[in-house]
Amino acid sequence: MSDAFTTRVLNIATGSNERVFDLTRDCESFLSEAAAGRDGLLNIFVPHATAGIAIIETGAGSDDDLLAALHTLLPADDRWQHRHGSPGHGRDHVLPAFVPPHATLPVVGGGLELGTWQSVCLVDTNRDNPRRKVRLSFLAGS
């Protein structure tokens, strides 16, 4: 594989509760090896129909606020056509329309270019799937 493109899959245990899982340290660790001081792009992708990637502040209540907002927008009730799994699971399949399953971020000098309070997060509202894969891919600039 060319050193211009490097990819790795993370296995994340999200458990049986809805959660916002901070991936920032995992991204930084990956970039310390893959970017090796270079500029480029980091793509984060979750290959699941019921999870997404968000760039938000964590630790100050914003992660809980995001889950609360998703409950308001996408209630876990019986209105959904998609009905297998736990009650209200159909909403989990609509989640990626609101929290996309990917993000692409700039990498400068081998480091992730995030704002002071920004974190890269996996958003998982699906209590039926306690394990997630997240693919990190670095594409070096020319």
UniProtKB/TrEMBL annotation:
InterPro entries given in the database record: UPF0047_YjbQ-like, YjbQ-like_sf
A Pfam family matched in the record: YjbQ
Record-given protein name: YjbQ family protein
Family membership noted in the UniProt record: Belongs to the UPF0047 family.
